């Protein structure tokens, strides 16, 4: 039986991973580690033998801009680490696609047909929309630009 098999058998008999992850001694060790590294200059941490990633989670909470990663031979512990990482952190993947700036204008116009033009960065006017505005109607004209 190899080390990975021994570890797997130990974890198979462990029914409550939370007891390990949230143990007082382990939590104190993780807090100590964060205190130990706080004066170091680093932008990433990779823990070999991360188990359920308790240390990495404490590091991430204290240093949210630091990239973290971990490796362990125990599949059960890694599943717990993966679950914990995605449950306790916001999913910021789509935040990167939000526009840097949003502009909005509001106009009160009489009922009529309108052509909406936009001029950007010194270019010629561009027709964005044609609006047939009825009396009392509210309309929105959306325009996206990479400038």
Predict the CATH topology of the largest domain.
Rossmann fold
Count of individual beta strands = 4
Note poorly predicted spans: none
Instruction: Give the end-to-end Cα distance, rounded to a whole number of Å.
Output: 62 Å
The main pleated sheet reads as: 2 strands, parallel
Counting DSSP H or I runs of 4 or more residues, the number of helices is 5
Strand order of the largest sheet: 1-2
Shape descriptor reads elongated
Mean pLDDT: 80
| CATH architectural label of the largest domain | 3-Layer(aba) Sandwich
| Strand composition percent | 15-25%
Secondary-structure topology with pairs:
Blueprint: H1 3-13, H2 17-21, H3 24-37, E1 44-48, H4 54-62, E2 67-71, H5 75-87, E3 112-118, E4 126-133
Parallel strand pairs: 1-2
Antiparallel strand pairs: 3-4
Helix pairs in contact: 3-4
């Amino acid at each position: 039986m190899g080390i990975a098999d021994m570890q797997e058998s130990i974890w198979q008999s462990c029914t409550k991973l939370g007891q390990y992850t949230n143990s007082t001694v382990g939590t104190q060790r993780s807090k100590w580690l964060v205190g130990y590294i706080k004066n170091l200059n680093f932008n990433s941490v990779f823990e070999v033998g991360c188990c359920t990633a308790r240390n990495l989670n404490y590091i991430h909470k204290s240093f949210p801009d630091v990239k973290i990663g971990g490796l362990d031979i125990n599949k059960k512990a890694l599943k717990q680490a993966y679950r914990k990482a995605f449950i306790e952190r916001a999913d910021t993947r789509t935040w990167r696609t939000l526009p840097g700036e949003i502009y909005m204008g509001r106009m009160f116009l009489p009922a009529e047909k309108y052509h909406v033009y936009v001029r950007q960065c010194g270019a010629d006017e561009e027709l964005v929309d044609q609006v047939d505005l009825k009396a009392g109607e509210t309309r929105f004209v959306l325009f996206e630009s990479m400038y």
